[in-house]
Amino acid sequence: MKHIFFILFSFVMVNLAVGQGKKPADVAKFSSETVDLGKVKVNNPVTATFTVTNIGKEDLVIENVTPGCGCTKSDYTKEPIKPGKTGTITATYNAAAVGNFTKTVYVKFLGVDEQKNLVIVGVVEQ
């Protein structure tokens, strides 16, 4: 009986420890998670800039930024962001097709389990 209790207790403790991973909201705050680029001209690339503030107690490192499609390019602050300081993430959309658009950029912070999704929206006109 003691063995069963010990195994059950160990299982519960491991699950609690695994569930305690950092989330993006624990370390970073964005001035906006969606940028509306409004009306843009066809074949005219447009860039959205997202500002991220380190709200944690340690340096914040942007590990990777991945656009959701090949029509969007991204860049980001490469050096560690000190606590209380800001960095930027840019997403440049190549407005090649007329109509509404919604594009997502996925941000991964070092030491954080989940990624953060940022969105750019707008309308491409002739």
How would the blueprint of this fold be written?
Layout: H1 2-18, H2 24-27, E1 28-30, E2 34-41, E3 46-54, E4 62-67, E5 72-76, E6 86-93, E7 99-109, E8 116-125
Parallel strand pairs: 2-8
Antiparallel strand pairs: 1-3, 3-6, 4-7, 5-6, 7-8
Descriptive overview:
By secondary structure, the chain is of the alpha+beta class. It has a single domain (23-125), classed as Immunoglobulin-like (Sandwich), CATH 2.60.40. Helix content is 17%, strand content 48%. The chain contains two helices and eight strands. The protein has helices spanning 2-18, 24-27; strands at residues 28-30, 34-41, 46-54, 62-67, 72-76, 86-93, 99-109, 116-125. Strand 7 (99-109) and strand 8 form a beta hairpin. The longest helix is centred in the first third of the chain and has 17 residues, at 2-18. The relative contact order is 0.26.
List keywords for this structure.
8 strands, Immunoglobulin-like, single chain, 126 residues, elongated, 2 helices, 4-stranded mixed β-sheet, alpha+beta
